[in-house]
Structure formats: C-alpha cells, structure tokens
Amino acid sequence: MGHADYYKSGTYNGLCDRCGSKFKFSDLKLEWDGLYVCTANGCWEARQPQDYVKGVRDDMAVPVSRPDQPSVFLAPIIVTETTISTFSFIISRLKSLAVSVSSAVSVALSTTLRGFGTKVVNGSAINSKTLG
Known about the structure:
Elements: E1 13-15, E2 22-24, E3 29-30, E4 36-37, H1 81-114, E5 118-121, E6 124-127, H2 128-131
Antiparallel strand pairs: 1-2, 3-4, 5-6
C-alpha cells in the first residue's frame, strides 16, 4: 500500500508523468505541455516567461529593388587543341604588333626631335646642349 492508497471522496489515484509516483489526482497539476505532475517531489515547473514574448516584425525589404539581369554569354568556350593554337596565334600576332608599334613610335620620335637639335640614344631623347 502506497501513500495515496486511501479513500478520498470525489478523487481517484493517479501517477505523476514525470517521476512516476502515486498521488491522488486532485494533488496533481496539469502543466502547459499536457503532463500531470506532482508538486511534492518538485516535478511541477512553471512555464518559461519567454514563451509569451511576441516577436517584433522586422522589415527586411530592400528600399530600391531591381530585377536580376540575365547573364550574357556569347557562347560556351570549349577548349580543344584547335582553340589553344588559335589563342597562341592571336597572342603572337599581338606581340609582333606591339613591337612594330613601339618601333614606329621610336622612329617618329627620333625624326621629330632631330629638328630641335636633340639626339635619341637607346630610346632616350638627349639635348645637344646638355652633352656640351
């Protein structure tokens, strides 16, 4: 016989859902999560006060929005030996063009500066008065 095995008018025996001890049902309390628990063994807990806190709605909208622009691709580049040789040819042509442009600029510069009494030595313009 347990401590709840006695007659009490209008109630019946029940078990604590947390500790499993036998109590009169009128001594058990209903928790917020639906469990009937005792108060004698410290099983009953009050509901957490932060469960009642209401959140503040945060407006996350961007003030000025624009639709995404579609990506523009000319064509997918498939790298093969042909494309590598083509790129190598283009690069070599650009290098030779750069050399011919730089030599043309140095020739034009030397002819322009000779009229002013200036010599061009190794790409540098030297005035004849500074040479003495």
